[in-house]
Amino acid sequence: MTIQTVGVLGLGAMGRPMGRHLASAGFGVVGYDPDHESVRQAEQVGVRALGSPKEVAHATDIVLVVVGFEAQVESVIFGDDGVLSGARPGLILGLGSTVSPSYARELAERLDGSGIELLDMPLTRSDRAAEDGTMLVLAGAAPGVVDTCRPVLDTFATDIFDLGPFGSGQVAKMVNNMILWACVAANDEGLRFGESLGLDPDRLREALVVSSAANFALIERADERPLPWAEKDMIIAQYEADRLRFPMPVGGLVKEIVKAFKVRKGYPTPSL
């Protein structure tokens, strides 16, 4: 199968630049987002807007889902005007959203026999990486699906890891996020501690990013950004750990630190 037309569901900070890279690479790109401003900006970079996920599915060879929460994934796939109602046999559904591994497994079961091929493809790094086309994809799919989709993924990612069957990518993203938010918590606490002892936090950070304390979150200044997904990600990890009866003392502590961080910054309570 040669992919010619790509659909993008969710045209925000990740979906819009992904659409731009795809269009620049010569793919036909269509998309949908309920937010009119997101649609307007996406159209300016080569994405043709359609009226529903159903229309996007019907017009494409692969649909990339990059919405923020499981409830949104549920809506764009199974809603009255969702992907399932417009999918042609052989459509590939790429799940770029971060969801729980349990939900990914349930999704695969519900779509079994639908004629839709599934690609697990949660995205890592940042919205800056999305703009630059340097994201990392943690992929999971049936044999051959990742190779079929590689020309699409290569347009916005510099690193693609095929980690096993569908759902494997969500497990990897969950682990990635646990470690990421642990670093954010440690960075925030350490920089504030240094400041309380008289150090300028910017000068301290400048030294630490070339020291043995260097980490992605410190370099990207993630502790200074809104972190809309942090608590959601840790809730997912805690749920999966509880389901397996897997002890996760560091993860549990980080979840509460992240909560306190967001309360201190005045950020809203998350939803899944």
Quickly list its features.
272 residues, alpha/beta, Rossmann fold, N-(1-d-carboxylethyl)-l-norvaline Dehydrogenase, domain 2, 2 domains, nine-stranded mixed sheet, 13 helices, globular
Molecular structure report:
There is one protein chain. The protein has 272 residues and is α/β, with parallel strands linked by helices. It has 2 domains: 5-166, 3-Layer(aba) Sandwich (Rossmann fold), CATH 3.40.50; 171-265, N-(1-d-carboxylethyl)-l-norvaline Dehydrogenase, domain 2 (Orthogonal Bundle), CATH 1.10.1040. It is 51% helix and 14% strand. The chain has 13 helices and 9 strands. It has helices spanning 15-24, 36-44, 53-59, 70-78, 83-86, 101-111, 127-132, 145-153, 168-196, 201-208, 216-219, 230-244, 249-265; strands at residues 5-9, 28-32, 48-49, 62-65, 92-95, 117-120, 123-124, 135-141, 157-162. Strands 1, 2, 3, 4, 5, 6, 7, 8 and 9 form a 9-stranded mixed beta sheet that branches. The chain is globular and about 60 Å long. The two termini are 35 Å apart. The model has no long low-confidence stretch (mean pLDDT 93).
Q: What's a quick, concise take on this entry?
A:
The protein is 51% helix and 14% strand. It is of the alpha/beta class and 272 residues long.
Query: What radius of gyration results from the CA coordinates?
Result: 19 Å
Order of helices and strands: EHEHEHEHHEHEEHEHEHHHHH
- Report the CATH architecture of the largest domain: 3-Layer(aba) Sandwich
Question: What percent of residues are in strands?
Answer: 5-15%
Stretches with pLDDT under 50, minimum 5 residues? none
Distance between the termini: 35 Å
How many β-strand runs?
9
State the CATH topology of the largest domain: Rossmann fold
| Count of discrete structural domains | 2
CATH superfamily of the largest domain: NAD(P)-binding Rossmann-like Domain
General form: globular
Largest sheet: 9 strands, mixed
Question: Tell me, what is the CATH class of the largest domain?
Answer: Alpha Beta
Q: For the residues shown, what is the average pLDDT?
A: 93
Number of helices: 13
Helix content: 40-55%
| Structure classification | alpha/beta
